UniProtKB/TrEMBL annotation:
Coiled coil: none annotated. CDD domains: ALDH_SSADH1_GabD1. It comes from Sphingobium psychrophilum. Residues 2-450 form the Aldehyde dehydrogenase domain. Signal peptide: none annotated. Residues 1-21 are annotated as: Disordered. InterPro entries: Ald_DH/histidinol_DH, Ald_DH_C, Ald_DH_CS_CYS, Ald_DH_N, Aldehyde_DH_dom, ALDH_GabD1-like, GABD/Sad-like. This is NAD-dependent succinate-semialdehyde dehydrogenase. Transmembrane segments: none annotated.
Amino acid sequence: MMKSINPATGEEIATHEPLTPAQIDAALDRATATSATWRTTPIAERTALLIALADAYHAHRDRLARMATLEMGKTLKSALAEIDKCVAAFRHYAQAGPAMLDGGSIPLAAGGKADYVWLPIGPVLAVMPWNFPYWQVVRFLAPCILAGNVGLLKHASNVQGVAALMQEMMGVAGAPEGLFQNLPIRSDAVAAIIADDRVAAVTLTGSEGAGRAVAEQAGRALKKVVLELGGADPFIVMPSADLDAAVKQAVTARVQNSGQSCICGKRMIVHADIYDAFLDRFSAAMAAVKAGDPFDPATDMGPLSSEEQRRTVQEQIWKMQAAGATLIGGEALPGPGAYMTAGILTDVPTDPALMGEEIFGPIAMLFKAADIDDAIAIANTIPFGLGSSVWTTDEAEEARFVRDVQAGMTAVNQMLASAPEAPFGGVKRSGHGRELGPFGLHEFMNLKSVYRAG
């Protein structure tokens, strides 16, 4: 039995019975049958469905957002913004997507040419987390539909209400049965689905451990896999930066979604010349963050997703304190709900084992860098490389950061945020492959060459 528990109150919302093996088998049969027809469906019909999905999400915006707030604790205004982002992604692939599917022709030195075309590959399994429960799925689903593939969703156990609503929205939009199926299953059922010949590929957003397991299972089955595994992203601030803007965005990075975002800066690496000024402003701004009822418009930050998640963050803090770090704020709040205040860890040892801890909560790690070389060295010390944010008005410094910070994405003078138009993904242990943009669309397509004489 899977349970949805409101992290703001600790109260049980609903229980969900996992699918039986027979039900999973039937779902895979439906996916296979639908794949056979959807792959040849005209692109105009695929884009029409994407527009219908955008309309459905917009029409049910409040209801969808409330479920996310109830199940994982994000503020209602954050949940509403997440729905709006999903609507934008559906519309983007409907409008810009057909051009992404255009093939081309390459002349051959020996004569003739090779045309190339993009073709669907079949059912794709998505294993998705709870932190952005709609957006994480839509950034796989929208290109999946456009490509002519079909989707299977294994969502996190604590957001099964969200998963069920996503399934419902497919019906509202008039999607063919089997085009997208929510599979309420436990993690131990995933390996058999990946191994099944009816599944063509798998995409996962989650922990490093989950990524290793899924990559190993996909490797045994010789199937394509895309992994987004998070990280402890650097947020580098240099003396030429607009300090007030950097501080404001650093606070947002740490308290947005209660600090439970893969790509928001977690390690604030600040040049020694401005370190004290940054810390003064940053600590005051973090202390002013209001944690409370996620349905209250005045709330800045809701609870963490669960009591278990709050305990994990606390244990990470204690480990760093034992190694010599100093905590400012970051306390668990009494009473019901998995609440805690925003906090900062200073004097954290530059030990990769410590700095590589992804604190999935409203806690920042603060480091002092002697110069740009030191800042880059601190940024690259850890084994992860998802995103990064750099703050400088010096063009030479910007070029160094873009070239030398080991990350799949870098934001300049802004907090990193994903967008439907741009490729999303990391390097090193943050995973491989890309989502979004044309690159995410092509990850799960067959690039087929057609050789022609003359």
